[in-house]
Specification:
By secondary structure, the chain is mostly helical. Helices cover about 55% and strands about 0% of the residues. The protein has 8 helices and no strands.
Length: about 170
């Protein structure tokens, strides 16, 4: 296919975000799509199939087990929190924000990807997860529109304005 102006704009925006947020491209791309599972050292495997992070490995995270899984996210909270480097309170706050009830939300690539992108962007902006979620709500922005780096850039811009204003997000 032809390289379009729209594609070039997306690449420029992604490159700027990579620099501004100090994130790798695989991590950044996970903001706009599910976690990569295809490559041997995929982001998914680095997070959820990593014996250094999760010992022993939880078989519920095996890629073959994910499609159609009936496992509940809440039953695997310690492993998810370890992989995403967040606390239980942050895990539950993100689930509430995503309207995923702890006692009903199932373990899936989609849910793990959503948890990941929220935890990572909060950390990249040096915000507590609850502050990050508050800013998402207050701004009315969706920072993670699929295939749209501009959605994240727009949210990061709002964050910058709030930060420069001297106000705290809680105000």
């Amino acid at each position: 296919d032809d390289v379009t102006e729209g594609l070039l704009r997306k690449l420029f925006t992604a490159k700027k975000l990579k620099t501004d947020l100090n994130l790798s491209l695989p991590v950044l791309f996970s903001f706009w799509s599910d976690l990569d599972v295809l490559r041997p050292r995929s982001l998914y495997s680095q997070l959820f199939l990593n014996k250094i992070v999760i010992t022993p490995l939880d078989p519920a995270f095996d890629l073959a087990a994910l499609p159609g899984s009936t496992e509940l996210l809440g039953d695997h909270a310690p492993a998810i929190c370890a992989a995403l480097r967040i606390g239980t309170d942050d895990f539950e706050a993100i689930l509430r924000h995503l309207n995923l009830p702890l006692d009903q939300a199932t373990l899936s690539l989609v849910s793990l990807s959503a948890l990941h992108r929220h935890a990572v962007l909060a950390r990249a902006l040096k915000l507590k997860v609850k502050e990050f979620l508050s800013l998402l709500v207050l701004s009315g922005k969706d920072a993670f529109i699929p295939t749209e780096p501009s959605s994240t850039a727009s949210f990061v811009e709002v964050f910058g304005v709030v930060k420069e204003s001297g106000f705290k997000i809680s105000q």
